[in-house]
Write a structure and sequence with these properties.
The complex is a heterodimer. Chain A is mostly helical. Chain A has eleven helices and no strands. Chain A has helices at 3-36, 44-62, 65-89, 94-113, 137-159, 161-171, 173-178, 183-209, 221-231, 236-255, 270-298. In chain A, helix 2 (44-62) packs antiparallel against helix 3 (65-89) and helix 3 runs antiparallel to helix 4. Chain B is mainly alpha-helical. Chain B has a domain at 94-355: ABC transporter involved in vitamin B12 uptake, BtuC (Orthogonal Bundle), CATH 1.10.3470. Chain B is globular. Classes of the chains: A mainly alpha, B mainly alpha.
Chain lengths: 317, 401
């Protein structure tokens, strides 16, 4: 194997990691904001699936990929509205409601997407770069959006007045309320924002990173995002790195099919591929273990009011 | 809050009691609402006659009254069923489907009762299926006594489930790691593990994604095997799996409502802080409950392979998730879970032949939503009462004159 080929392979893997980590990044960023406002949404997987399915269907029917993004994002947000209503207004259990969102999203996307399974849309424009010849304009755009959005969200959360309001609602809602901040409205806003981001992440998957629709397209990415939020200690910038790392783990089995790597090539030995496929999930558990140690040491923690419904005028946080 | 146009006002107050009928009411409401929403979605997906679709689901899942009547008549006279398989076929299939979701439902319910969110019944079930297969195909000789073989498979299945449940249990008890994420991640690991063994791996026969058929001794006896003495059983697939589930449900009910340990579990679930002050060992109970919960889910896996009579790449995913809904719909009552699982079994059988495929998952999601949404009604009472009118007493009112 020549050094040039190795260089090209390394670049492909790195860029591949950025591309396949980006949908995860969107979902993670959305969930970070929702959880910072005090509402846990375990429905990311369902919202991503609905986003992926509706986005792809739109693209397939209209031929406009950006319209696909818009529709997928909106449908993700629509589903999160349900979660917001049930957990914020009806004050029901956030865990169970989130699970219900996932069930509903899985079922809905499966029913409505049945007609689109295996359908293809003409391949997107490719940029001809000598080394990275497999990369499309859409991929570059999506990665750039992710790279820009994560620091922006960090800035918004940590350096602006609305960000401060958001954090206060997640830490001590009754104190925030006493300062005239509308707790319910803020929670609604960020749960819906989380849904929009999950929808965006899902549509990024079905439109760009892995174009097409099959049942259960996201294969647990939504759940991984929930885990990443914890590992990122609810910090958008940490979320960025973690998401890319997971993108790498997810891409690796694909990239290693390269027959140029005879020893570990998954093309020769499918069993290695199965083990590789387990990596993102095992790594999620592993980083949670690491994260728990760090959280104990640095006393990093979840937003204090995470998971608790806010009832105006009642005792408690 | 005053209701406009009337002299009544609505008041929301915290409920101190918890009437049992409300659980049933919210479950029924959930199902009805789910059917309505499901009908709308079916309509949107292109089905022309949603009500007809539901009738079909019901018929496929439970059979018609006429068929039941004919079946019982044949059973009493020990004759053949005039309508062939139609008599008890649907309910028999439904019981077969109900068995694994009853077991996974019980697994979830046990953990949920302690507010441990074991969403990993699916993975624990897969491990149980793998272990039971190992016993049936690779460890025990083919001519082992049937009941011994089935018992060994059940032990292997539950032990594997137990071990797989202890991993998140340990992480939760020791490092306080969110069990929702770990159990979920382990689901996907279990799926891949099964693929590794069976989807053309060390356990598959040639290029088939299967272990090949189990020896007969490693399979559940089915009703149809007794057709010689009871002719109406011919063709019926029902097997003792549902009895296994009912047995576990009764044991769990005893644990919950009669034993001291069950009381501890309920105290931890309702108020962990009080439990701590009462000297209940939290980490130990987390390990016990997660282990037992995994073991029950593992039994579901053993039940599935003994019923399918082989382990193949199409081993069904998602039964553990249905268990979550069964548990919640049963309001964490083990005996109610029996009814709920038979209801869901029928739904799954009925929707099997119907396209599109996801209808069962969607209906389950909507049911769960309504059940969790009506939770509010359990905790708060909405009272209608005569509005207290602010009337100024005429006697005290200042006179204009």
């Amino acid at each position: 194997m020549t050094s040039e080929a190795l260089f090209s392979l390394a670049l492909t893997i790195i860029f591949g990691a950025l591309v396949s980590g980006t949908p995860l990044l969107f979902a993670t960023l959305g969930e970070i904001l929702a959880e910072r406002s005090g509402v846990m949404n375990l429905g990311i997987e369902g919202m991503m699936l609905v986003g992926a399915m509706s986005g792809f269907a739109t693209w397939f029917n209209t031929g406009n990929i950006w319209l696909g993004f818009l529709v997928g994002t909106l449908f993700g947000g629509l589903l999160s509205l349900l979660h917001a209503y049930i957990t914020i207004t009806l004050r029901a259990d956030q865990v169970v409601s989130g699970l219900a969102v996932t069930f509903l999203g899985t079922g809905l996307s499966s029913i409505l997407g049945a007609a689109y399974v295996g359908k293809k849309v003409p391949t997107p424009n490719t940029i001809i770069v000598p080394i990275l010849n497999r990369i499309s304009l859409q991929e570059v755009t999506v990665v750039l959006i992710g790279l820009v959005v994560a620091p922006l969200i960090w800035y918004y959360l940590n350096r602006t007045r609305p960000g401060l309001n958001l954090r206060s609602v997640g830490e001590y809602p009754s104190a925030a309320d006493s300062l005239g901040i509308n707790v319910y409205r803020i929670r609604y806003m960020y749960v819906i924002f989380g849904g929009l981001m999950a929808g965006l992440g899902g549509s990024a998957m079905s439109l760009v990173t892995d174009p097409g629709w099959v049942d259960g397209k996201t294969s647990g990415m939504g759940w991984i995002a929930v885990g990443l939020v914890i590992f990122a200690s609810w910090d958008p910038l940490r979320g960025l790195w973690v998401a890319y790392f997971f993108g790498l783990l997810r891409r690796l089995p694909l990239d290693l099919q390269n027959p140029a790597l005879p020893l570990i090539s998954t093309a020769n030995n499918p069993s290695i591929g199965r083990v590789m496929d387990m990596l993102p999930y095992l790594a999620t558990i592993f980083i949670l273990i690491l994260g728990s140690r760090e959280a104990m040491r640095k006393r990093l923690g979840a937003p204090a009011a995470l998971g608790n419904p806010y009832i105006r005028g009642e005792r408690g946080l | 809050m005053k209701i406009p146009g009337t002299s009544y006002q609505m008041r929301v107050e915290t409920r101190l009691d918890n009437p049992g009928w409300m659980g049933a009411a919210s479950a029924v409401l959930g199902i009805i609402l789910a059917l309505i929403v499901g009908g709308i979605v079916l309509r949107a997906a292109g089905a022309t006659d949603p009500i007809g679709t539901y009738q079909e689901i019901f018929k496929e899942g439970y059979g018609t009254p006429a068929d039941w009547q004919a079946g019982f008549h044949a059973l009493l006279t020990n004759g053949d069923c005039p309508r062939g398989l139609l008599c008890f076929g649907p309910i028999s299939d439904t019981l077969v489907k109900a068995a694994p979701i009853l077991l996974t439902g019980l697994a979830c319910l046990l953990a949920f009762r302690m507010k441990l969110w074991n969403i990993g019944a699916d993975g624990q079930m897969f491990l149980g299926g793998l272990a039971a297969t190992a016993v049936a195909v690779f460890i025990m000789p083919k001519d082992t006594d049937r009941s011994l073989m089935l018992i060994l498979m059940a032990i292997a299945g539950s032990l594997a489930g137990l071990a797989y449940g202890l991993i998140p249990g340990f992480l939760k008890a020791r490092l306080n790691i969110n069990e929702i994420i770990t159990t979920l991640m382990l689901n996907y690991v279990a799926y891949k593990l099964l693929e590794y063994f069976v989807v053309v791996g060390p356990w598959s026969i040639g290029d088939f994604e299967s272990t090949g058929p189990f020896p007969k001794t490693a399979t559940w006896p089915r009703l149809t095997e007794f057709a010689k003495s009871v002719p109406i059983f011919a063709g019926l697939t029902a097997h003792p799996g549902i009895l296994l589930g009912i047995g576990v449900a009764i044991i769990l009910a005893w644990i919950f409502y009669k034993s001291q340990w069950g009381y501890q579990i309920r105290v931890i679930g309702d108020n962990p802080r009080a439990a701590k002050y009462a000297g209940i060992d939290l980490p130990r109970n987390i390990l016990l409950v997660m282990g037992l919960s995994g073991a029950i889910a593992g039994l579901a896996g053993m039940n599935e392979v003994a019923a399918l009579r082989e382990l193949n790449g199409r081993f069904q995913r998602g039964l553990g998730f249905t268990g979550v809904i069964v548990a919640w719909l049963a309001r964490l009552n083990p005996l109610a879970a029996i009814l709920v699982s038979i209801l869901f079994g029928g739904l799954m059988v009925g929707t099997q032949l119907i396209q599109p495929q996801g209808i069962s998952a969607m209906l389950q999601g909507v049911i769960l939503f309504v059940v969790v949404g009506t939770e509010l009604l359990f905790r708060y009472r909405i009272k209608l009462e005569k509005a207290e009118q602010i009337v100024i007493n005429k006697a005290e009112a200042p006179h204009d004159k």
